[in-house]
Amino acid sequence: MAETNELPDAPAVAREVFSGEAWSKARAYAEMLAGPGVVRGLLGPREVPRIWDRHLLNCAVVAEVVPEGVRLVDIGSGAGLPGIVLAILRPDIKVTLLEPLLRRTTFLEECVEALKLENAEVLRGRAEEIVGKRVFDVACARAVAPLDRLLVWSMPLLVEGGQLLAVKGERAAEELESAQEALRKTGARQAELVTVGHDKVEPPATLVRVIAGQAPPRPTRGGGRRASGGQSRRRRKRQR
After folding, report:
1. Each residue of 39-79: pLDDT tens digit?
2. Are residues 157 and 178 in contact, defined by beta-carbon separation less than 8 angstroms?
3. Is 147 helix (H, G, I), strand (E, B) or coil?
4. 187 Rama class: left (phi>0) / alpha (psi -120 to 50) / beta
5. Are the C-beta atoms of 209 and 165 separated by less than 8 Å?
6. Helix (H) or strand (E) holding 196
7. What is the DSSP letter of 100?
8. Residue spans per domain, the chain
9. b/e for 85-122, b at 16 or more Cβ within 10 A?
10. pTM of the model
11. Is CATH 3.40.50.150 the right assignment for the domain spanning 63-239?
């Protein structure tokens, strides 16, 4: 039999953050992460003692900046961090857990069913595969990819004025600076650093928040001017 990873007692602040009905679901989810999540390789055994502070609470504080009633996609959801945590805390939002790997989507489906998360769905696939098929108000991601790559994946999925919430650590400012070209190319309207979770997690969680604008139009094959000139010549021939 697989070795059991003992879940540590939740800190007092966890009971404050996951209040009411959210507490029992948060506790059950923590047990799933420490058990099946570790056995299936979705979470490392060394992370079990830090499930509450490093993972659940670090994700829970993201809810502070999620608007009410939005459609949210968790890109590269993995074990459900932060998507499942946000679905637990915020029954007012609709959460899509987007994940390409089968073993992970299987775990996510089991979590959604066991926790009775009626506001969450699991979608197997990559972000670029659902562009034009689905649209969201908020995209979030944690430990998935550098910011410049996240922008390419997330901006086409967002409504104009929607926002990407990228959970980053101490390199957040550096990543934001390095992503200036990607911000321009993806039509981002605004980008800033946001800290959440003061008095709840130490250090507070750092997010990069990017507001989506209208993406620049893709150039037509051969260039816009050349196509325009060809059309003008064809019109002149027809006039003759």
Report:
1. 999 999 999 999 999 999 999 999 999 999 999 999 999 99
2. no
3. helix
4. left
5. yes
6. strand 188-196
7. -
8. 63-239
9. bbbbbbeebbbbbbbeeeebbebbeebbeebebeebeb
10. 0.87
11. yes
